[in-house]
Amino acid sequence: MNGSIFVALALGAVLLILLAGLVVMIRGGRPNLSNRLMRLRVVAQLIAIIIIMLVLYINGH
Questions:
Q1: How many domains does the chain have?
Q2: Coil/strand/helix, residue 9
Q3: Going by fewer Cβ within 10 Å, which terminus of the chain is more open, N or C?
Q4: pTM
Q5: Which of 60, 40, 58, 52 is nearest to 6 (CA)?
């Protein structure tokens, strides 16, 4: 199965979370929501890195 779909989905999720956090921060919304979104972004980045590494490992064998 082609892993690039999973990589694209993971990176898309990171981008959406990042943009949502920036919009909340720029509009002067609730600081707690902005902080929560930025923490969620870090978790999404970790998951994206794991997916990328798995795809690279699987495609290498």
A1: 1
A2: helix
A3: C
A4: 0.82
A5: 52
In the DSSP assignment, the letter for residue 56 is: H
Q: Quick one: tokens of 61?
A: 């064998």
| Nearest Cα residue to 48 out of 2, 11, 4, 5 | 11
Give the residue numbers spanning the domain of 37. Answer: 4-60
**pLDDT tens-digit readout, 4-53:** 899 999 999 999 999 999 899 899 888 888 889 999 999 999 999 999 99
Task: Tell me which DSSP letter residue 3 carries.
Answer: T
Evaluate whether 39 touches 8 at the Cβ level (below 8 Å): no
